[in-house]
Design goal:
The protein is of the alpha+beta class. The chain is about 25% helix and about 35% strand. The protein has helices at about 5-20, 55-70, 95, 155-175; strands at about 25-30, 35-45, 75-80, 90, 105-110, 115-125, 130-135, 135-140, 145-150, 195-200, 200-205, 210-215. The strands form two sheets. Strands 1-2-3-12-11-10 form a six-stranded mixed β-sheet, with helices on one face. A six-stranded antiparallel β-sheet has the order 4-9-5-6-7-8. α1 crosses α2 (about 55-70). The chain is globular, with a radius of gyration of 20 Å. The two termini are about 25 Å apart.
């Protein structure tokens, strides 16, 4: 959750994200393994999730430099920067407000009405309270109790038609350019970008709109 981002990390990360014309959505630091995993989620100012992968890679490199200079993390770490994705993370009040009418999954810090997990339709978000229809029963969850939440993407016929058209265009392109048949492209939403070495760190886009470095 945005409000739970450690202040010492937020003041290093958020200016870099803002300089890229984006918003910081969430930061999570998993200390369980080696290396540690620092995951940063960013979004556009209009919240559509359309963050170019090269923006993620640039933010990863710049944040990595800032963390090294400030010695912000005391262990070796893996840094990932990504957009919210299809199943969108809900980390701020505005994320909940814009997700009314969608299916969501919410986990709470403490039991609310006898449970800690809620999955259903987000009916409303007013007064920092989320009203969720869970199997026909309305549950009210205070935002301050939310520990983790996400919105599920609902696939439509338009999505399948777009995929069908993309596949058709690819086939037509291959028919016109037989030499390109069987080749793959780097980067993009489902590609894997070329690695860039800088200061002993590797920044590379991974699957989806994600980029990472090893610190």
């Amino acid at each position: 959750m945005y409000r739970d981002i450690p202040e010492e990390l937020r003041i290093l990360i958020e200016p870099v994200v803002a300089d890229a014309g984006l918003e910081l959505v969430d930061v999570s630091l998993a200390r369980g393994g080696h290396p540690w995993n620092l995951r940063i989620t960013v979004d556009t100012l209009i919240g559509d999730g359309c963050v170019p992968v090269d923006h993620c890679a640039r933010i990863a490199r710049e944040v990595g430099t800032q963390l090294d200079v400030a010695d912000g993390i005391e262990s070796a770490y893996r840094l990932e920067v990504s957009s919210p994705g299809l199943d969108r993370v809900l980390a701020r009040e505005k994320d909940f407000a814009s997700s009314c009418g969608s299916e969501v999954q919410v986990e709470t810090k403490n039991p609310v009405a006898g449970r800690r997990r809620f999955r259903g339709i987000l009916l409303s978000f007013e007064g920092n309270v989320a009203s969720i229809d869970v199997d026909g029963v309305e549950s009210k969850v205070p935002f301050e109790e939310v520990s983790k939440a996400k919105r599920f993407y609902e696939f439509s016929s338009a999505d399948f038609n777009q995929h069908k058209n993309q596949h058709k265009n690819q086939r037509e392109n291959e028919d016109e350019n037989p030499a390109k048949r069987g080749e793959t492209s780097s980067g993009g939403r489902h590609g894997r970008g070329r690695s860039n070495q800088r200061g002993g760190k590797t920044a590379e886009p991974t699957s989806g709109r994600t980029a990472g470095i090893d610190g």
